[in-house]
Amino acid sequence: MRSFRSIALRRAAALIAVTGAAAAAVLASAAQTRAPLSAASGEPSSEAQFLKENAAAMNKMMADMEIKPTGDIDADFTAMMIPHHQGAIDMAIAELRYGKNEQLRRIAQEIIVGQQQEIVAMRLALGQPLPAPAPAPTQVSPSDQSPPITAHHQQSEHGVLSAPASMQSK
Question: Do 107 and 96 form a contact (C-beta atoms < 8 A)?
Answer without folding.
Answer: no
